Description:
The complex is a heterodimer of chains A (132) and B (242). Chain A is mainly α and 132 residues long. Chain A has helices at residues 7-16, 24-35, 40-52, 63-79, 90-94, 104-118. Chain A folds into two domains: 2-35, no CATH class; 40-118, no CATH class. In chain A, helix 3 (40-52) runs antiparallel to helix 4. The longest helix of chain A is centred in the middle third of the chain and has 17 residues, at 63-79. Chain A is elongated, with a radius of gyration of 20 Å. The two termini of chain B are 52 Å apart. The A-B interface holds A 1-6, 8-9, 12, 23-26, 28-29, 31-32, 34-36, 38, 72, 75-76, 78-83 and B 143-147, 153-157, 159, 161-162, 165-166, 168-170, 172, 175, 184-185, 187, 196-203, 205, 208-209, 211-212, 215, 240-242.
Amino acid sequence: MLNSCTEDLKHDLKLxxxxxxxxxxxxxxxxxxxxxxxxxxxxxxxxxxxKKMSIRTYPGENATLFVQDPAKLVREIKMNFMINSTVPDLxxxxxxxxxxxxxxxxxxxxxxxxxxxxxxxxxxxxxxxKTY
Amino acid sequence: xxxxxxxxxxxxxxVAPETPAGTNDTPxxxxxxxxxxxxGLSTGxxxxxxxxxxxxxxxxxSTSFQATLTSQQIALLLNSRNAYATCTFVKxxxxxxxxxxxxxxxxxxxxxxxxxxxxxMGEFNTDVVKSxxxxxxxxxxxxxxxxxxxxxxxxxxxxxNANTVVSSxxxxxxxxxxxxxxxxxxxVASDGTLNMLQEPGHCTLAIIDTWCKDxxxxxxxDPSSSSVARLLVCQYNRINML
Lengths: 132, 242
């Protein structure tokens, strides 16, 4: 774990963490405490970034290319969760970029999934299953 | 049979010293010098003990003679050469046992059937010295961390790497999976599991302390058990944590 830190951070950890606790999960937790702070504002900020994404900015409106970027943001949002699923509309927000697609078939599928997640808590409002 | 006992001819156990070693890959022994002082081994030639000592210290000559071994003695000799084959591996908490040895982690594709990669090996199915030697490069890789990717190192908030924390965590997780060490970061509690590297926001110091105690001394809660049964403490947990 220490070999995955810069020299400054390694030095800082050696000063702040007891040698008995300088291993595995305890050391990782110390690193998180020092450099990574999950917070609700960060979730909101990431959600805004998700909403601003557009598939039209990708060559040929390539969905495979597009998905890479929202997936990273979704993962980062989940890393900020402090209790289970604090963003119930995460699926809807993550699919925002696809709603700008010029492909009608894709657009229809995206809208179906979004509506199923937004409208009917039990799923299957328009067919299909609820996606989390 | 002792060394002083008269030699007994056993027809079905006659071994000629010049016989090639066969499939044995160890260097072929020098022409049998018949260590009569070796308990249980006798020759057809009832030489006195003093002569045998001289033979053992004298330059090895290519003299040939016949040694007779009982089938029990042959089995003993074979077992002593292949002693490592009898070692048994204990399947640990997360990982498996393959013909090559013991491996850790959730395995290739997370299916737990085959090791994710060679560095997942925790012990090799060979004798102790060979296994120790073979483990050296594996340990080196496991200790390397993200050192070979300087741009992904965890850094202080005032360092250039400060904005790549998420990428660093992702890279660290992949590295742990690649080396079979991810299981120590998957916290098992009575109310479910928690992946430290994917849900760090759920972690608290209390949870981490309890988890480390479970790993090192109390045993991890058995998630498949309905009661609060605990698994035995796994030595590989400690190795992977340190």
